[in-house]
Amino acid sequence: MEVKTEDNSGVIILTPMGRVDTSTAKIFEDSVMAAADTNGKIAVSFDSIDYISSAGLRVVLMLGKKLKASNGTLVLINMPDKIYSVFKMSGFDKILKICATFDEAKPLFG
Amino acid sequence: MLFEIKNKIDEIGYLCDEVKTFCNANHISNEKYHDIVLILDEMVTNIIMYAYPDGGEYIFSVEIEKTNDNFVNITIVDNGIAFDPLAKDDPNTSSGIEEREIGGLGIFLVKQLSECIEYSRIDEHNKLNIKVAIVKKEENNGS
Question: Which of A78, A84, B21, B49 has the fewest other C-beta atoms within 10 Å?
Answer without folding.
Answer: B21
